[in-house]
Write a structure and sequence with these properties.
It is built from 8 helices and 7 strands, in the order βαβαβαβαβαβαααβ. The chain is of the alpha/beta class and 259 residues long. The protein has one domain: Rossmann fold (3-Layer(aba) Sandwich).
């Protein structure tokens, strides 16, 4: 998909993207660079090195700068160091994209305490402390934009995703509450909530017999997301076009949640 993102006007902005190695995170990182932003890439410490090198080369070819800050988002001190390093390197942080997350999959009756804690730490706790760290930079500098990646599962119940759905619902409400606290300081927090998205890690699931047909019935538009489908929504919320969009959850779900 070839889209001209330059009109979003992010020239000179500095953006952090967590979980950029593949899928939605990678597409957002490239989209930000195409819109004019320099990009801080924050993959997990044991990330796919070849994937990050390829992404870095693509962003550099667009004339934008990158900074690699490997970050375990479940560790608060690493999250804080991620934001501090970005600010020390570029002198500001204008945009934070909280994309990284993790979920256990399986019947709720079989879930362990470790499953619950791991999902909440990677998906909800990490988002709060990254938002907090970013706001501590953004408020003194005069503002910024935070986009948290949510999910349609936050409001549409889905078997085998009970913990994940609860974690993402918390991200949605957390984002609304943080915008309520920080909007007067021009730090606005919004959510982009995709539906099932075809990424490298999900492709095997989507290729199961009958799955495509089931999804086509759930989605009025007739297909699941590609990572690039999420980018425009994120860039809109990062831009000055969305100055009055505050504490909003923007569903990019092919109509799943209008059922």
């Amino acid at each position: 998909m070839s889209v001209n993102y330059a009109g979003f006007g992010l020239d000179g902005k500095v953006a952090i993207v967590t979980g950029p190695s593949q899928g939605i995170g990678r597409a957002i990182a490239v989209g930000l660079a195409k819109a004019g932003a320099d990009v801080v890439l924050a993959p997990r410490p044991n990330h796919d090195r070849a994937a990050i090198e390829s992404l870095t080369e693509e962003i550099h070819a667009l004339g934008r700068r990158t900074l690699l800050v490997s970050t375990d988002v479940t560790q608060v001190e690493q999250v804080r160091a991620m934001v501090t390093t970005a600010n020390n390197t570029f002198g500001r942080v204008d945009i934070l994209i909280n994309n990284a997350g993790w979920t256990c999959t399986g019947p709720a009756i079989d879930a362990t305490e470790e499953d619950y804690d791991a999902t909440m730490a990677a998906t909800t706790k990490s988002v709060f402390f990254a938002c907090q760290a970013a706001a501590r930079v953004m408020i003194p500098q005069g503002g910024g934009r935070i986009i948290n990646i949510g999910s349609n599962f936050a409001i549409s119940a889905f078997k085998t995703r009970a913990i994940y759905g609860g974690a993402k619902a918390a991200v949605h409400q957390l984002s609304r509450a943080l915008s309520l606290e920080w909007a007067r300081d021009n730090v606005v927090v919004n959510v982009v909530a995709p539906c099932i998205t075809e990424t490298e890690s999900r492709r095997a699931i989507l290729e199961r017999p009958g799955y495509k047909e089931w999804v086509a019935e759930k989605l009025p538009i007739g297909r699941w997301n590609q990572p690039e489908d999420v980018v425009g929504a994120v860039l809109f919320l990062c831009s000055d076009m969305a100055r009055q969009v505050v504490g909003h959850v923007l569903y990019v779900d092919g109509g799943w949640t209008i059922h």
